[in-house]
Sequence to fold (159 residues):
Amino acid sequence: MARLGYLGSFDTSPCSDLVVSVPQTAIVSTDSAKRSGSFESTMDVTSARDECDAVLNEVERAVITDREFLETVLVGFLADGHVLLEDVPGTGKTLTARSVATALGLSFQRVQFTPDLLPSDVLGTHVFNEKSREFEFQPGPIFANVVLADEINRAPPKT
Fold:
């Protein structure tokens, strides 16, 4: 059975407080696709609707919001782009992004955008491993399937 995952995003506002970005990686997969390294799938409309309903029902268990909002977010994921959300603090934007990622079986990371954010805060850095006496790359949040860029141009700098 095919598993429906992320394929994109959707703009809901020209100015955003929160950006959810997912790399263009097909998460829709079957066991044979995993084994062969290629993907070919057919999913009829009824199966796709059932999979989307299952995802929405799972997210609704964690997030208290209207279903139309969650459908818009899911359409954004399926449209292969970015989901932009703008609202006042405390309305569940981060919880929504984390819950959608969890329901789709994707990794999730959050980046708080402060004025002094460094590239290594997003990309990762090399760290010296004393045991092996070598540098090892520690990936940053950008390597997750779902990346949340939160509090853009709003948070105070790190101290």
